[in-house]
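ok so i was messing around last nite and threw this chain in just to see what happens. nothing serious, just curious
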Amino acid sequence: MKIPVSQPALVGNEKKYVIDCLDSNWISSKGKYIHLFEQKFAEYLGVKHALSCCNGTTALHLSLLALGIGAGDEVIVPTFTYVATANAVAYTGATPVLVDCEPDTWNIDPLKIEALVTARTKAIIPVPLYGHPCDMNPILDVAQRYGLYVVEDAAEALGARYKESLCGSMAKISTFSLYGNKTITTGEGGMLVTNDDELAAKVRLFKGQGMAPNRQYWFSQIGYNYRMTNIQAAIGLAQLENIELFLAKRREIAGWYKQHLSGIPGITLPVIKKYASHSWWMYSILIENEYGESRDTVIYRLSEDGIESRPFFYPMHVMPVYSKGGAPFKIATAVASKGINLPTYYDLCEQDIVRVASVLRDICK
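result:
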């Protein structure tokens, strides 16, 4: 039996709400579920505004547009992240400026940000990778000293906490992905959150083709069709109703992995900093030289045993579109080459994790 790396948990009111959309004919980008989902999402995070859109990448793009970031500007981003973070910056005409990661959390290194600030720097985008929060206080301190915006790309960290604050509630604007492998999903989808009324109004304008809110078919500026459908929002609302259940199960899965993988030579388990409450979007490990097999060999051998896994993201500095032949980013390069995401989803049982651990023990013999 194959164990996939991820799959959604449709265990609540998803079918009921979708059928309601079909029965009422509200299946496009208007309908009650869009408002309800946005309202409940904002309440969950404790923010004023939650604005749905068609995916997490467009949420990032909308954030930068609303902040007025464009050609000639620079935005500081981690080199070790999913490509959408850098792409959203590039969409605006601004330049992504890359930062190496911490060796233990794999998140952007706050101590390396300030040296990269120039007169053209406008924002910092921290990314709580794989569900572990970034160390936000020093990032926010640098931003305050230099008058920079902080846009948290919390795509993978819904439900994670930095100290007492939920990821996504601390920055000027934060964004989430609601793709099928995320903690809650709308299939495809994204959410943007902010406490700023003016920025929220700008985002609403941009995501709806730029149409004036009180004058139908009057377009005061260039906009985008970045809206979520009522059907997607219906699924999202049902998912959000079960978020504490999903987070609790992921914590349980992480506990099983720690129990059954501890002591295997050459496997580095994920850390949890004192300031962090992990969302465990993915349970991620490093395959060190002491293990005796390469990361890619491990992925292949797991697959042979019916266990799907994923390598870590390639860092941005090795991508042809973002490589400039500058800093070596040694930590991100090393981490990315050793990392594996193991199966992490609601329907896993402890016996599944025992099976994964057994194969990992056998490979290194």
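not much to say yet. The chain has two domains: 14-100+107-240, 243-363.
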